[in-house]
Each structure stands twice: as structure tokens, then as C-alpha cells.
Design a protein that fits this description.
This protein is mainly α. α2 runs parallel beside α18, α6 runs antiparallel to α12 and α10 crosses α11. The protein contains 19 helices and no strands. The radius of gyration is 27 Å and the shape is globular.
Length: 412
């Protein structure tokens, strides 16, 4: 039995329906607008990490001093802070500088760039290979760079320039003034070539073992084998050179590269040349973060969603090799950052690579800056790698304890 509505009742019902529809559309629009304009928790944390890095950089520049050369005390810190503040103002205004503040700024900017490169590369490797213990050294990039550096030092280094470096700063500056950029950074070119050569060999072997398809397990095993083998050869070479007294300069340079150092980055030009192959690939990786999210689920799932896994993985490996190779070329072998910093970032922003990559980069810059501040403060008696491991271990313990206190049952 159907009930007929009068014309007046039908008109009132239509008005109520239209009002209800308008209300639902208004609520839907408001929720979408709020979601579009709001800042997610992960994005807020990434922004806070970036702000923390900027503040930490300013504090390090203003307060860090070598306690063995400059002394330690409140009056000394105030004097130094005032001097550096005046120098920075003069640098901005283009006035004549009383000290080399621009070189000091370069020294403290370099660790940030290196830390960002290694941490972002480590996070990318962990997503590509579905392994939280993956790092930039996984495919033999670092060991290949060390091999290229050793080959250059032993067979191609200009020994007269090395002698000038020890005995005559003026003679060294005159010699370098007549060199082209390629000649000035020939060792770095050898190191980059070594990085890419080892990665290409590892990928070729993985493709052969996978019968035309690059096998992920073969990549990881091949990279580990090459890393171990080359590291053993380099250690043996340094031992033989030290034992036979072949060349004190050569052996000490190889040891400093194996330990990690920032002594070669002293000018804005050097910092710029190192930063270009780091910043550009990092930006491209950030733009590819959505594809990395899909690949992290698994190759079959990514392929079913239309992602060209082989092509995108190759592009990401080339980009991370370029970033890691640049850090090895200018700073030597620095471990820990690429392995553990992405774990810190996961505690902070989760596993979404849209936020994990920038968070890893910012945290890597923070860890490296803290390590370099300690390295600079205590007279550079140990290698940068020693301070990186010390700072990173303490930060990791703090994060781990805090993570467990929140009731989480696992670490990944």
C-alpha cells in the first residue's frame, strides 16, 4: 500500500533532501580542504628535523673551537662568537674579512652534505633490497673507490706535488694555480671510476647468474664478496708499504682515506664540485620516492602495479652510486651513517619513503655535523669515522630505548 503525498508535502520533502545533500557536500568539501591544507605528522617531523639541522649548524659555527689550539673558557667562547658574528656580517655585506670565515663555513657545511648523501643512499638501498641491514657499501661502492684511490696514489700521483704539500705551502699554491679543474681533482676522478667499475662488475655477475635478469640476492652476495676482498687487499698493501718503508706519504694517505677525513674540502669550489653529484641525485630520488614505496613491497607486486622494476632499480642504483662515490672521493670511507641513520628515521616518520628519504637525509646531516664538531673540538686526534661511530651509537641507543619504552615488540 503506497501513501500519496500532497503537493505541499512533496515540496517540503524535496527541500529537506536538497538541504541534506548541500550539507553533505559542504561537509565533504570541508574535510577535503582541511586534509589538503593540513600538515601531516610525518611532514611536521621532517620540517622539525630540517629546522633542527639549521639551528645546530648555526650553533656549531658560532661556538665550536679547537680546545688544544684555542683554549677553553667562557671568555674565549664569547670572544670567538663575537668575532665570527662580525665576520659573517662582513661576508654578507661584502666587506673585507679579517679571518677566513668562508673556509670555516665550508668546513662545517661539508659534513652535512656528506651525511645527507650517505643516509639517503642507505635508506634507498634498504628499500630496493628489502633489507634493513643494507647500506651504501652493499654493492662494493666504497671499496671500489678505495681501490681507485690506491691505484692513483701508487701509480699516477705527482710525487713533486706531494713533496710540496709537505715542505712548501707557497710552492704548492703556485703549482695548483696553474692546474685545470680536471688536473686538480684527478684523484677524485679515479675514485669515482673505481666506484662505478666495481658496481658494474657486480651487476654484470648478478645478471649472468640470474640468466639475463638481475638477481637481488646475487647483487648483495657479489657486493659483499668484492667489499671483503678489496678491503683485505688494501690492508695488505698498506701493511707491506709500512713494513718496507716504500712511501710514508702514500701509506698515510691511504690510511686516512680508509679512516675518513674532511681535510681536502677547504674551499667553496671544492665543496661545490662535491655537492653537485650529491644534491642533484638526491632531488631525483625524492621525486622517485613513490616508486620506491611500491618496489619496497616486492618486485612482483610492483610489476603488477605497472612499475618497471628493472629500469627504476637501475636508475636508483646509479644515483646512489654517484652520491656515495662523491663522498668517498672527497672524504674517504665513512661507515655507520648509511646503515643506522635510516633506522633512526623510521622511528621518527615511519616507512613511507616520501618522508623517510628526507628524514634520513636531515638526520644524516645532524649526526655527521655532531661528529665533525667533536672531531674539530678535540684537536682531530682521531679520524672522523671514530667520532661518527661514537655519536651514532649514543643516538641509536637513545632511540632504541625510547622505542622499546613505547611498547613496540620489534625493531624494524
Amino acid at each position: 500500500m503506497t501513501m500519496k503525498l500532497s503537493e505541499n508535502d512533496r515540496r517540503k520533502l524535496d527541500q529537506r533532501i536538497r538541504l541534506n545533500m548541500d550539507l553533505q557536500e559542504s561537509q565533504l568539501f570541508s574535510s577535503q580542504e582541511e586534509r589538503r591544507l593540513s600538515v601531516s605528522r610525518e611532514k611536521r617531523r621532517v620540517i622539525l628535523l630540517g629546522a633542527a639541522l639549521v639551528v645546530l649548524f648555526a650553533l656549531c659555527v658560532m661556538f665550536t673551537c679547537n680546545v688544544f689550539l684555542e683554549g677553553w673558557g667562557l671568555s674565549r667562547i664569547v670572544e670567538q662568537m663575537t668575532q665570527r658574528a662580525n665576520d659573517i656580517v662582513d661576508l654578507i655585506l661584502g666587506n673585507q674579512l679579517s679571518t677566513g670565515i668562508h673556509f670555516f663555513l665550508v668546513e662545517f657545511t661539508a659534513p652535512i652534505v656528506v651525511g645527507m648523501a650517505l643516509a639517503a643512499a642507505g635508506a634507498c638501498y634498504q628499500g630496493l633490497f628489502h633489507n634493513p641491514m643494507a647500506s651504501p657499501t652493499l654493492l662494493g661502492v666504497t671499496s671500489g673507490g678505495m681501490l681507485g684511490s690506491t691505484v692513483y696514489i701508487l701509480f699516477f700521483q705527482n710525487l713533486s706535488v706531494a713533496t710540496l704539500n709537505v715542505n712548501s705551502y707557497y710552492g704548492l699554491s703556485v703549482t695548483y694555480a696553474g692546474l685545470s679543474i680536471a688536473e686538480m681533482y684527478i684523484q677524485e676522478i679515479f675514485i669515482m671510476a673505481g666506484c662505478f667499475a666495481v658496481v658494474m662488475v657486480v651487476m654484470l655477475l648478478a645478471k649472468i647468474s640470474g640468466r639475463g635478469k638481475i638477481d637481488t640476492v646475487a647483487l648483495m652476495i657479489g657486493g659483499s664478496v668484492f667489499t671483503t676482498t678489496i678491503s683485505s687487499i688494501l690492508s695488505l698493501a698498506v701493511y707491506i708499504m709500512t713494513l718496507t718503508g716504500y712511501s710514508t706519504t702514500a701509506s698515510s694517505e691511504i690510511r686516512s682515506m680508509l679512516a675518513g677525513q674532511f681535510t681536502t674540502i677547504t674551499t667553496p669550489l671544492t665543496l661545490l664540485i662535491m655537492s653537485i653529484p650529491i644534491i642533484i641525485p638526491l632531488i631525483i630520488l625524492l621525486l622517485m620516492s613513490n616508486k620506491l614505496n611500491v618496489i619496497a613491497f616486492g618486485e612482483e607486486e610492483a610489476a603488477s602495479m605497472g612499475v618497471n622494476v628493472g629500469r627504476d632499480r637501475l636508475i636508483m642504483i646509479i644515483l646512489t652510486t654517484l652520491m656515495t662515490g662523491a663522498t668517498v672521493a672527497f672524504c674517504g670511507q665513512i661507515s655507520f651513517v648509511g646503515l643506522m641513520v635510516p633506522q633512526f628515521a623510521r622511528f621518527v616518520v615511519g616507512t613511507n619513503y616520501k618522508y623517510l628519504l628526507p628524514a634520513s637525509a636531515f638526520l644524516g646531516g645532524i649526526v655527521m655535523l655532531l661528529a665533525f664538531a667533536l672531531y674539530y673540538t678535540f684537536g682531530m686526534n682521531f679520524s672522523v669515522g671514530t667520532y661518527v661511530n661514537a655519536v651514532g651509537s649514543v643516538i641509536f641507543l637513545i632511540f632504541m630505548i625510547n622505542y622499546r619504552r613505547r611498547g613496540h615488540a620489534d625493531w624494524t
